[in-house]
Specification:
The structure holds 2 protein chains of 2 kinds. Chain A is α/β, with parallel strands linked by helices. Helices cover about 35% and strands about 20% of the residues of chain A. A 9-stranded mixed beta sheet of chain A has the order 3-2-4-7-1-8-11-10-9, with helices on both faces. Chain A has a two-stranded antiparallel sheet with strand order 5-6. In chain A, a hairpin with a 4-residue loop joins strand 10 and strand 11. Chain B folds into 2 domains: about 45 residues; about 70 residues, OB fold (Dihydrolipoamide Acetyltransferase, E2P), CATH 2.40.50. The chains are: A alpha/beta, B mainly beta.
Chain lengths: ~375, ~130
């Protein structure tokens, strides 16, 4: 297998846009190619993530659509849909295409547009990522899924709503230093605790926002990457799944797909959790960050809440988590999220993250979760 | 081609009549709900339908206050993960139990929630 590197990254401002998802992807992709110093003609394939384009934009077939808007044609394009993990799944397959020797330069990215429809409508479309026959018919929502996880975690380990609030406060503090973030404003534990319940015990400020945005990364084979500036090497990219139905998950306080994908990624890279210097992980809800820090082996099961409260996951702490602001503050354009997390890790490992830079970061981890925890991707990255 | 032992349609027809149904593997004894094509424990395709008592306890729960469009008129409503006494679990809508009484470990009983031609899993007081 050949080594693969990220040689270019691009991310749009996250928030509300009056442009289609394809346009948002195209902006990010053009930025990523410029960052790589590669012409569009060098791209041999596009792996693309988009989730609810069929619903919010009446647009399927988004692979060639996104390539066309970018100004590329003729290359193979594939759209991936693994709910919120879509562009990270696209990334893993692009890595395999280069590692296998099929292509030398592959463009990966994703985009989403949801703020053009009302919240009740986007809530419904996101719920499509739960089982239609068994769970959607209950009126289950994504905050509802993570509320079940939160309650189980609180019951088993004594995790508190204040500890969950600490995750939101920390990610907003990080996001305040990210010019691309949807929310660039610090918040207090009190504000989180006073916000309205969305799905008990989760409150509005425990939840990431709906977001429009696009992200892209350019991948290259070692031979090509050596010619370009600061290649960041893909040390591992692993995926795992879990039962689709929440009832089939035996312990709701855990996300087994995270544990499986992380174990596979650490094995591929020959690394341990303590070797990681910076993490971007899937904090769609504050409890999701707590459970992910445990599943990734960064903290013992049951101590993820304490870690947030003590500042161990802040920039400057033991293991900085979500220096970008995470999904919570940076925003969560679901089809773009995985690629945007990878872009942040690459920026951190290059030492180009400005005021939110994790000093001396050499090894980074990106973790992306799909929908009801049934899909998880974990990739590891290294400098030089 | 083997005939499925319990299709989704059969399951919900029985559920509509008040009977929760699982499948038990004729080879290894694994119990599953909802029905699957292959046994996740041994990989065999030897299911037998088994009636379930419909009795269980709450493993986790939430009160939904922001709903998808189709359920907006129902808010607030509770959903729970329920561990059935046979050992398998299901999500269901909680009915006729005040929110303040909801607790992990609370005994509940299955009841079908029928609306037009749709049947959903519900749980009420034991």
């Amino acid at each position: 297998m050949r080594r693969v590197a990220v040689v270019g990254v691009g991310v749009t401002k996250f928030g509300k846009h009056d442009r289609t998802s394809s346009e948002l992807f195209a902006e990010a992709a053009a930025d990523a190619l410029a960052d790589a110093g590669l012409p569009a003609s060098a791209v041999q394939a596009l792996y693309y993530g988009n989730v609810v384009g069929g619903e919010t934009e009446h647009q399927l077939h988004t692979g060639p659509q996104a390539a066309s808007i970018l100004g590329l044609h003729g290359i193979p394009t594939t759209r991936f849909e693994t709910a919120c993990a879509s562009s990270h799944a696209a990334f893993r397959h692009a890595v395999m295409e280069i590692a296998a020797g099929v292509s030398d330069v592959v463009l990966v990215g994703g985009a989403e547009r949801v703020l053009n429809v009302p919240t009740s409508e986007s809530t419904e479309y996101f719920a499509y990522a739960s089982d239609a026959v068994w769970e959607q018919t209950l009126g289950l929502t994504f905050p509802g899924v993570f509320a079940l996880i939160a309650r189980a975690h609180m019951d088993k380990y004594g995790t508190t709503e204040e500890q969950m609030a600490a995750v939101a406060v920390k990610n907003h503090k990080h996001g305040a230093k990210n010019p691309k973030a949807q929310f660039q404003k610090e918040i207090t534990v009190e504000q989180v605790m006073k916000s309205a319940y969305v799905a008990d015990p989760l409150k509005l400020y425990d939840c990431c926002p709906f977001t429009d945005g696009g992200a892209a990364v350019v991948l290259a084979s070692e031979e090509v990457a050596r010619k370009y500036r600061k290649p960041i090497w893909v040390l591992a990219s692993a995926a795992a799944s879990d039962w689709m139905l929440m009832g089939d998950k035996r312990d709701l306080s855990r996300v087994p797909a995270t544990e499986r994908a992380a174990a596979a990624a650490y094995r591929q890279a020959g690394l341990l959790p303590q070797d990681v210097d910076v993490v971007e992980l899937h904090d769609c809800f504050t409890i999701a960050e707590i459970v992910a820090t445990e599943g990734l082996g960064l903290f013992e099961p049951g101590t993820g809440g304490l870690a947030a409260e003590k500042g161990w996951t802040s920039v400057g702490g033991k293991i900085p988590v979500n220096p970008s602001g995470g999904l919570k503050a940076k925003g969560h354009p679901i089809g773009a999220t995985g690629a945007a997390q990878i872009a942040e890790i690459v920026t951190q490992l290059r030492g180009e993250a400005g005021p939110r830079q994790v000093d001396g970061a050499r090894t980074g981890l990106a973790h992306t979760l799909g929908g009801n925890t049934a899909t998880v991707l974990v990739s590891l990255f290294g400098r030089g | 081609m083997a005939e499925p032992v319990v299709t989704l349609r059969h399951f919900f027809e029985r559920a509509r009549a008040g009977q929760l149904t699982g499948v038990r593997c004729g080879k290894c004894g694994e119990l599953a709900i909802p029905p699957k094509e292959l046994c996740p424990a041994c990989g065999e395709r030897a299911w037998q339908p088994v009636p379930l008592a419909g009795e269980g306890t709450i493993a986790s729960f939430t009160v939904i206050r922001v709903a998808p469009r189709a359920y907006a008129a129902d808010v607030p409503y509770a959903i729970a993960a329920v561990k059935l006494k046979e050992g398998v679990s299901l999500l269901g809508r909680i009915v006729d139990i005040p929110f303040e009484k909801l607790a992990i470990g609370l005994p509940v009983r299955f009841r079908p929630l029928v609306k037009d031609d749709q049947t959903a899993v519900g749980f009420g007081p034991a």
